[in-house]
Predict the 3D structure of the following.
Amino acid sequence: MKAIVYHGPGKIEWEDKPKPMLLEDTDAIIKITHTTICGTDLHILKGDVPEVSDGRILGHEGVGIIEEVGTAVRRFKPGDHMLISCITSCGSCSYCKKGMYSHCENGGWILGHLIDGTQAEYVRIPFADNSLYPIPHHMDEEALVMLSDILPTGYECGVLNGEVKPGDHVVIVGAGPVGLAALLTAKFYSPGLLMVIDTDENRLEVAKQFGADYGIDSKQVNPIEIVKGLTEGKGADVVIEAVGIPATFELCQSLVAPGGIIANIGVHGKPAYLHLETLWSHNIKITTRLVDTITIPLLFKTVQSGKLLPQQLITHHFALNDALYAYRIFGHAAQEKALKVILTA
Amino acid sequence: MKAIVYHGPGKIEWEDKPKPMLLEDTDAIIKITHTTICGTDLHILKGDVPEVSDGRILGHEGVGIIEEVGTAVRRFKPGDHMLISCITSCGSCSYCKKGMYSHCENGGWILGHLIDGTQAEYVRIPFADNSLYPIPHHMDEEALVMLSDILPTGYECGVLNGEVKPGDHVVIVGAGPVGLAALLTAKFYSPGLLMVIDTDENRLEVAKQFGADYGIDSKQVNPIEIVKGLTEGKGADVVIEAVGIPATFELCQSLVAPGGIIANIGVHGKPAYLHLETLWSHNIKITTRLVDTITIPLLFKTVQSGKLLPQQLITHHFALNDALYAYRIFGHAAQEKALKVILTA
Amino acid sequence: MKAIVYHGPGKIEWEDKPKPMLLEDTDAIIKITHTTICGTDLHILKGDVPEVSDGRILGHEGVGIIEEVGTAVRRFKPGDHMLISCITSCGSCSYCKKGMYSHCENGGWILGHLIDGTQAEYVRIPFADNSLYPIPHHMDEEALVMLSDILPTGYECGVLNGEVKPGDHVVIVGAGPVGLAALLTAKFYSPGLLMVIDTDENRLEVAKQFGADYGIDSKQVNPIEIVKGLTEGKGADVVIEAVGIPATFELCQSLVAPGGIIANIGVHGKPAYLHLETLWSHNIKITTRLVDTITIPLLFKTVQSGKLLPQQLITHHFALNDALYAYRIFGHAAQEKALKVILTA
Amino acid sequence: MKAIVYHGPGKIEWEDKPKPMLLEDTDAIIKITHTTICGTDLHILKGDVPEVSDGRILGHEGVGIIEEVGTAVRRFKPGDHMLISCITSCGSCSYCKKGMYSHCENGGWILGHLIDGTQAEYVRIPFADNSLYPIPHHMDEEALVMLSDILPTGYECGVLNGEVKPGDHVVIVGAGPVGLAALLTAKFYSPGLLMVIDTDENRLEVAKQFGADYGIDSKQVNPIEIVKGLTEGKGADVVIEAVGIPATFELCQSLVAPGGIIANIGVHGKPAYLHLETLWSHNIKITTRLVDTITIPLLFKTVQSGKLLPQQLITHHFALNDALYAYRIFGHAAQEKALKVILTA
């Protein structure tokens, strides 16, 4: 079969690889119908994720059809249409039992990282009963690719950890795909004010189309002043960090109201200052989280009821065998006005 | 001044009463601008609430303008426009400190019950700093009368106690004003399915206009079958009882899914059977609550952000001095297609 | 092998049965070392649980050693010492993913009920990776039998659902084994006042030895008066029902303070009155629950740290092949001053 | 009257000041019977809290007897014995209504800071109905001084924010008075392992006497290795920071398990590094909090039931008019083996 294969920093190829086979009784082999590229894949490509070894097939998102299942897979059978979680969970270790699949002792984020991934014609999914989700009839399967990673990430790490409530004043710092995923799912709770901060005009425009009350261009204005002005000087109840650099994390600390929460989604590469000299007495909470994808069933229901339109995040479509080209486009996401791209087999 | 005065079962008059005066340093005198009639007022009129004595001015909802404040009132001053909570709270007893104002040792539901109420030209409000809420400029004051009682009641007793979450299957039993208030505020959380059960076709129609996915006429169909059919046989995650009779409470027990919640809003006059012989192992929760009105500030924010339109509940308008006529109309609410009536001074 | 076999109401035998074999890849066969008899087994014996068919081996509690595992069992191997949960969980259905193992679509309470149980020399445990718990070295294995069912039941259904907090006033109605299990685990939270109501003097005495502040004999005194007297007239913050008849459930309704919780543990055979005519405005919560055994790992830690002494519940010891005699003793538990009995192979 | 008066960095005097008078209807004047000195008072003395002006009477803890109340004080009367909260709360601002008294718009921490404090023969307490707590008969009033600040601080900022649960592995970094207050109140929840880290042998000894399972001297051993060794390599579920310097806050980040919480109590003067480059994916929570003293009623109940012995924290006794000498001793707390000192009028 064909797949996107990593060959060290800066090098990926669309090349032939052996079709995956069942290795464990709990495995399933999926024929990919739709997949996508994640910001994390670009990090891998840059060489920022050294555990990814030469020869690894990338990708941790996608939907597909079961080709074959191991003897211990009870819930699904060949022909079933499935959503693939970016997080593999065994379902029985102490972390899985607490719903913290991200830290599964036998899984976690391994697809396209420690084992071969989804940017391929076929993929092997360990612990299929726990790591796959059946797709109800008549749903838009392409759009559901957004439920593999980006929407649960925005929702769990940003909105749930941020404890967004009706009437809350919410700021999202960063209007990239994950910040927008947080925006779409924050709307589940009818916040009073949804403010988005970015430096890219186009993305701020998209944020407003997606329901932000204010798009704040931090190149043009002082975002602290604007947020304070919109919140009677108090700051925001919930601040969602969706960039991942020290400067934006420090900005978040200036935006949060006493009693508020900073929910970190961003993937950070460096330490940042925490201003405990002021925050120690501000009664705040800061959270970090690698997505558990425990909310995929809930997100399915919100899609079915029309409360969430995952297709809003999709800007570009490619054939799976144009994956290299798709990487090029997605690598210049801001310039190409790309949010998420779909690769269809 | 003129007021609606109770004179025993079946008898109310619009008559002269002395204008109220400050009795405690913490009191305020409010000039009523808008008030309404509650289902509870009809219960009082029937003689169902024996603590209401002859001569009592009725009414526990309304907005108005401060005329005078006691020396210990710090937060508000004459001329301020205020929303009156139906629950009076001292702010310092053990119940108030827990946010359970309904059981305030020095207040609770006393307006139009144990002390004179709001269906009058003026009313005395004890513990003004805690029992009144300032109305921001440019808000529709008439609509805010819905925040005195009915919307916090539907929200706190039904939706918050019911723990409605995105994607949840929610049934509301009873499409009267308080059931509809629960419906409007359940929508804050993007439930997956909102089902309303009633026997009044018009009210079911209104429920659908207000956002119910299904209106179920229990005179025409078996509501248990319908709800099970809509929920893969499981029943609803959240069942809100908004009638207050044994039959509907028993119906709720047949509608709730394992792991679900029955949130009782209805005012009950009789015991009901609880089917512990089946429910003991169903992992359910049943809640009761007299409204605390602790969510009034949150509801203000949802009105300001356009997420809640309280005016949707208002069907009839009268002059305050037509209050007796308004009682007649509201006394035949179903027939008159009345939800809430507004009396304007 | 030998086992306790049910042959219809009133009839059990200690008789030969075929040794169980692996049926699924996820099964384990356990050689029982210690088991016990549950109040539920007596109910089955009376014929109250009609789903139990003639020929069924009873018992749903125990510890033992793995004899054999299916090919898909990854976490454990022959020779490992294991605690058996009374609840079998597949780990991947929607209920298991919510931690509600009691309603597992492929398990739940099936041992000694719908499949053969633990009062035998060997037992087959489905979904071994999820339904068994490894016993750390140097623990008292006999005492751990109390973690199969009774301690998680008292803890989850009584104490966790009752939301016991430091300083709380707690009443437990019923000082049988499960009431005492609730008592032992309520102490985890340093309640202010632990009151136990029963009609058996000996059990009340045991309750006091186990840490109850008051043992209230409801044959001698009016428990409502006593509890009100001990709680400034308010009633208890948490009321745990551990009997399972209408009279005690109604008593609980008279004991609960405004804002309090009634946590039902009792297995009920009949409906009971719920006094909504008074409780509708008391802001209370009533919970029911079939144990999920989700807290077994937590309970292990409390045993290891010496905070919980499960052996306190064990009053009688028998050889496994004296199981019939043990049933006779346990069948007259009050008279024999029996709490839990241990059957050792 | 006599009082401890601040006269700029390094200068305090025991000198004559006018006896305080009622300024507002909601004030009370308290005759101090017992007070104490807080670590914060030493910070003030060093000049670290510039808002404290020359002439200010210090002290924010104490018990006493009401001498006089304003006309709007309803709950208490002259002669009543009261505990003084270190936090003054109006009870009606938006923060007080959320239970966040520390940020009361009309109070907060003002005693011995922005208004005159309790290290005096008399003190004026604003919002007496909300800021004082009645002392039940027969309680040890001297010991209750520990409920003014230090025990609620350890409990709210450390234990409640840290969400300590039965069986949890808990580390407290810092065995000074506030760390020990966290230790005493962490025990309410029966943690599985209580580890305390400090560099002072005596304080570690005290921690063990107070119930710590392990006292870890970070001058002698590597605390990270020790904690990892005691927790199967995972780290602690709850890490409580009770020092307030960058080094200890960074240590906490190395001690916390995935899914764990760092609850900050320490008063910080500088920013610290937050190692987001590793923690971003560890699913942790970090909290900060200025004590709200909202748990004073709960702590009263734990003292009454014998679960908490506040006198354990008291090491030294002085007459109130020896306050200057007491400051000298407390200023060398480690050397004098002092935890909390009591000054008695």
